[in-house]
Design a protein that fits this description.
The chain has 331 residues and is an all-alpha fold. It has 14 helices and no strands. The N and C termini lie far apart (77 Å).
């Protein structure tokens, strides 16, 4: 009997440490899951904030350009060249410091360089030029909202490439896009344009060029990354423009507020906006980022009204709303 009791006690003592070890393992796993969940939540929150501020800062660029046009009558091509050159140089500094190997690889690949050349002209240069012209002929809010029509072009291209019919929500988005553009352009009166014809044309062309920015580099983006592709394209277009424009020889006469607006356009509205938005795409995905990015036209409209005193008619606001809803339907 005593022998049995001793054996049972020995067995119990041998089981207890194992049980404790199992409990410790389960507790460690729970702790690990909690830390992972906390890390994922923190990453999601930071991604949302990065995308939100990226979209807001992009809206600032249109208002800054409009301010320079209205107050100091800055030349459009001069502004484009100085913006591309300085913002592109900032991108190149980051690339050479942190991603030099992939950039050298791009320079050694002729096919990818050809794609980059087409992307630089059809996307970065064309979009930047036509967007600034649309801002000049209309206002920052209208130009930014019209540029959002790129999503309809991307949708049509995707449907043609995949050989499928548009989905119901995509068709609804197309209808809303055209309705919004119609209201912005005519104010609801088909017999007259409430914005200059050249402003309407530039706004539509900027949407096409913006779509090219998303479509053309799809095969090289995964290889080299968005900073190298867009940053080097921006810098290259700035260099080519500078050869013809020579912006340093025709600097405009501006007070401190003008130079501040130019700095906001280049640093905040171009360099920071793009970096923040792409960080958001990396952290939360392109779909969520596209949805949150709809703050851009809202930012441009609000800042244009506050800083420049731009007055928007009720039909403009309805048109803006149609296009923003279209964004939600087509992404």
């Amino acid at each position: 009997m005593q022998q049995d009791e001793r054996e049972q006690m020995g067995l119990a003592s041998s089981i207890k440490p194992g049980a404790d070890a199992g409990a410790d393992a389960r507790a460690a796993r729970r702790s690990m899951r909690e830390r992972l969940n906390d890390g994922a939540s923190r990453k999601l929150m930071l991604g949302v904030l990065a995308t939100l501020f990226g979209g807001i800062f992009w809206g600032f660029s249109g208002t800054s350009a409009s301010y320079l046009f209205d107050v100091y009558h800055v030349d459009t091509v001069w502004l484009l060249s100085i913006r591309q050159l300085i913002a592109g140089a900032m991108f190149m500094a980051v690339i050479l410091l942190f991603d030099r190997a992939r950039f050298v690889q791009l320079l050694k690949t002729p096919h990818d360089l050809a794609v980059m050349a087409f992307f630089t002209f059809s996307g970065v240069f064309a979009n930047s030029l036509t967007y600034l012209l649309a801002v000049r002929y209309t206002n920052a809010g209208t130009a930014t909202v019209m540029q959002c029509l790129q999503l309809v072009i991307i949708m049509v291209y995707t449907c043609m490439r995949m050989r499928r019919a548009p989905r119901r929500r995509e068709l609804a988005g197309v209808v809303l896009a055209f309705a919004g553009a119609y209201l912005i352009a005519t104010g609801g009166d088909p017999s007259a344009l409430v914005i200059p014809p050249e402003g309407l044309v530039m706004g539509l062309v900027s949407a096409v060029a913006a779509a090219c920015m998303s479509i053309v580099p799809t095969k090289i983006l995964p290889v080299y990354g968005s900073s190298i592709v867009t940053g080097s394209a921006m810098f290259a277009s700035g260099l080519v423009l500078s050869v013809f424009v020579r912006p340093w020889s025709s600097m405009p006469s501006m007070a401190a507020d003008g130079w501040i607006a130019l700095a906001i356009l280049i640093v905040v509205g171009s360099f920071l906006a793009y970096n923040l938005y792409m960080q958001g795409v990396k952290d939360i995905g392109s779909v969520r980022a596209s949805l949150i990015g709809t703050v851009e036209p809202v930012s441009a409209t609000i800042t244009s009204a506050l800083v420049l005193g731009t007055v928007f008619a009720p039909t403009d606001i309805i048109g803006f709303a149609c296009i923003i809803v279209m964004v939600f339907l087509t992404v």
